[in-house]
UniProtKB/TrEMBL annotation:
Family: Belongs to the asaB hydroxylase/desaturase family.
Organism domain of life: Eukaryota
GO molecular function, one term: oxidoreductase activity
Coiled coil: none
Keywords (A to Z) from UniProt: Methyltransferase, Transferase
GO terms under biological process: methylation
UniProt cross-references to InterPro entries, sorted A to Z: AsaB-like
Entry protein name: CmcJ-like methyltransferase
Organism: Talaromyces proteolyticus
Length: 274
């Protein structure tokens, strides 16, 4: 499909400032800015994946698994805290089966997204119960950002991951099948890692994290899982301990021919130790 991918513009401001963004209003602070980003929307071809088995986590930054999961669509909005441990266990078991080289896998986040009918024209504020699709091409963490997240989510356990190798992974799927605003992934082999990636301070209410954003490059090749079902899992790497492995840069994209219901999705964030 032909659609627009939202990149970070190659702005001259980054010659003197580090990229940053917040997820909360700062209007009450004189002179404050929520971000110094400028969007660079590019018309790109996002191809439907034809052969799920050809995509490899260590080559392309993402892979596709088919595995049965159980999660009540309504409970994720009303009983998220009560049901997340059981869903985490399901996802961890699936990953252990498909990636036996991981010695330990620990989940630490369950994010639910439900597209507002007015998105993206109007982006609602942060919601405790669910969030909006994330439409800027990004990877959730930089190498440093992975460590910052571990320190935040597992306080006092720094000695455990010191000198250990690990991956920061996401496992993403729709809550109900739909072709509305699918998740698109950029083939890591098409990214110029020296020129295309911008480190970004992600300023949250309880954490200053660090992620990676993507600048446009005509060489990029984007893909999506057409007709993805609830048991079709997209697994992608956001970062690793040494910053040397393929990463899954991703973005929600508008499908101009969508006929399905508004997108609802669920994703688990995990750390997987070698």
């Amino acid at each position: 499909m032909e659609t627009r991918v939202r990149y970070l513009a190659r702005s001259p401001i980054f010659e003197t400032e580090k990229a940053f963004s917040t997820d909360f209003p700062v209007d009450h602070v004189e002179g404050a800015r929520r971000t110094n980003h400028e969007a660079d929307d590019r018309l790109m071809t996002v191809a439907a994946i034809q052969n799920p088995s050809q995509w490899k986590l260590d080559v392309h930054g993402f892979c596709l698994l088919h595995a049965e999961t159980h999660l009540d669509r309504n409970d994720v909005y009303t009983k998220k805290r009560e049901i997340q441990d059981a869903y985490w266990y399901q996802i961890e078991a699936i990953l252990h089966k498909h990636f036996p080289h991981y010695s330990r896998i620990e989940s630490y986040d369950l994010t639910v997204r439900k597209r507002d009918p007015e998105f993206p024209a109007i982006v609602r504020g942060y919601r405790d119960e669910y969030e909006q699709p994330s439409s800027t091409a990004h990877s959730d963490y930089s190498q440093k950002g992975g460590f910052l997240t571990l320190q935040h989510c597992f306080p006092g356990q720094d000695d455990y991951w010191k000198d250990k190798d690990f991956d920061m992974l996401n496992v993403w799927r729709p809550l109900t099948p739909t072709d509305d605003w699918p998740l698109a992934l950029c083939d890591y082999t098409t990214i110029d890692t020296e020129e295309d990636i911008r480190i970004n301070d992600a300023i949250r209410r309880d954490l200053v994290g660090e992620g990676s954003l993507l600048h446009h490059n005509e060489a990029h090749r984007w893909y999506y899982f057409k007709d993805q079902g609830v048991n079709d899992l997209i697994v992608f790497r956001n970062s690793d301990a040494y910053g040397k492995r393929a990463r899954g840069f991703h973005a929600a994209v508008s499908n101009p021919e969508a006929k399905g219901p508004l997108r609802e999705s669920v994703e688990v964030r995990l750390v997987a130790f070698y």
